[in-house]
């Protein structure tokens, strides 16, 4: 039957696309090694996977990570189950391990599970090695940017470095709570040509407001629901983005950036990036445009100096984390590995 992996993840309102794209990017790395990969998810997530360019066979589960779906998963003859969702309870992971399945868990902030029930724990965030985890016996941690799983388009590292003279504004796949509109108006006030990105799950009301701004403001272009950001990032002079998946795409592309913390679960990333020299602003409780605008203008008007300041940060990201994690899964059992109960 060959090596078989099931990927259990979820996307949708309030969740976005980050978990989906991350886990399926790992799935693509495995598929290129000849592994049979199944997507285990609800219908909405399956539709979103297709919309962002992935075509894995789907085994439909419910929307919630319920114990009732476990018997379905147990019957699929899987070698590994990859779990990427904050909604998966600890009992769910423990049941998978108890059935004899090998489990890979993606985590970001060490704030979901009191004990990690997984054979491989993957946290590719820049702050990952600052966190403390409690684990079952034998868990191996793949922590830090070397294990950051990114979309296949980034596996070859930075792009061609062209500069088409625009500021890219992008804050994720869903609602920005009006923050993107504020950024568009800021770019207009400092007279910087801007491209704003409306993600695939942006609510229609917010999208209408952005369309109206695009018509009214000179030098502003709106891109709606792109399949990916790679080409837009590659053509930009500088980027203002959220401190989630996108900021890593920008840094891998070696572009000057200003980071915004637009959700509470991005704060640890934002703090670590700020410590490493990236200008970062917290937008979770309001955004001070008077403070933000000068930082954006500096990055846009002198991108060479901005890149020089960020060179150490750029060097952390090569885009190949998915390949490394896939190899760890394929080589499992060739240890021995240490079995820490807590990191660091």
Please render the helix and strand layout as text.
Elements: E1 4-9, H1 18-31, E2 36-41, H2 43-51, E3 58-60, H3 70-74, E4 80-84, H4 90-98, E5 102-106, E6 120-123, E7 133-134, E8 140-143, E9 167-170, H5 179-189, E10 194-198, H6 204-216, E11 220-224, H7 230-235, E12 238-242, H8 245-252, E13 257-261, H9 267-275, E14 280-282, H10 289-301, H11 303-309, H12 311-314, H13 321-330, E15 342-343
Parallel strand pairs: 1-2, 1-4, 2-3, 4-5, 5-6, 6-8, 9-10, 9-12, 10-11, 12-13, 13-14
Antiparallel strand pairs: 7-15
Task: Explain what this protein looks like in three dimensions.
This protein has 13 helices and 15 strands. The chain has 344 residues and is of the alpha/beta class. The protein has two domains: 4-153 and 319-335, Rossmann fold (3-Layer(aba) Sandwich), CATH 3.40.50.11190; 158-314, 3-Layer(aba) Sandwich (Rossmann fold). The chain starts with a strand and ends with a strand. Mean pLDDT is 91; it is low at 334-344.
**Do you know the CATH topology of the largest domain?**
Rossmann fold
The largest sheet, given as strand count, sense and whether it forms a barrel, is: 7 strands, parallel
At CATH level 2, the architecture of the largest domain is 3-Layer(aba) Sandwich
User: If you compute it from the alpha carbons, what radius of gyration comes out, rounded to the nearest whole angstrom?
Assistant: 20 Å
- CATH C-level class of the largest domain is Alpha Beta
Number of helical segments with 4 or more residues: 13
């Amino acid at each position: 039957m060959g090596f078989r992996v099931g990927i259990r993840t979820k996307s949708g309102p309030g969740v976005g696309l980050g978990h989906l794209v991350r886990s399926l990017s790992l799935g693509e790395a495995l598929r290129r090694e000849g592994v049979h990969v199944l997507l285990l998810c609800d219908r909405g997530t399956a539709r979103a996977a297709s919309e962002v360019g992935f075509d894995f066979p789907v085994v439909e589960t419910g929307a919630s990570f319920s114990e009732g779906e476990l018997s379905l998963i147990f019957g699929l003859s899987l070698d590994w189950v990859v779990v990427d969702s904050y909604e998966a309870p600890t009992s769910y992971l423990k049941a998978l391990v108890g059935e004899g399945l090998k489990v890979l868990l993606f985590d970001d902030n060490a704030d979901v599970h009191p004990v990690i029930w997984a054979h491989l724990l993957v946290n590719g965030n820049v702050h990952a090695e600052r966190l403390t985890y409690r684990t079952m016996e034998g868990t191996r941690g793949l922590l830090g940017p070397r294990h950051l799983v990114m979309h296949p388009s980034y596996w070859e590292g930075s792009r061609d470095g062209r500069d088409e003279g625009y500021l890219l504004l992008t804050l994720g796949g869903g609602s920005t709570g009006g923050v993107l509109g504020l950024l568009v108006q800021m770019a207009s006030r400092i007279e910087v040509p801007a491209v704003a990105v409306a993600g695939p799950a942006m609510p229609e009301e917010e999208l209408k407001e952005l369309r109206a701004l695009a018509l009214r403001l000179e030098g502003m272009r709106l891109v709606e629901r792109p399949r990916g950001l790679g080409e837009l990032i590659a053509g930009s002079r500088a980027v203002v983005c959220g401190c989630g998946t996108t900021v890593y795409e920008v840094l891998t592309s070696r572009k000057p950036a200003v980071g915004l913390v637009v959700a509470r679960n991005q704060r640890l990333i934002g703090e670590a990036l700020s410590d490493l020299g990236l200008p970062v602003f917290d937008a979770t409780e309001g955004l001070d445009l008077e403070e933000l605008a000068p930082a954006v203008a500096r990055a846009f008007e002198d991108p060479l100096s901005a890149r020089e300041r960020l060179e150490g940060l750029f060097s952390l990201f090569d885009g190949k984390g998915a390949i490394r994690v896939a190899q760890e899964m394929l080589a499992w059992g060739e240890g021995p590995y240490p079995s820490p109960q807590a990191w660091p």
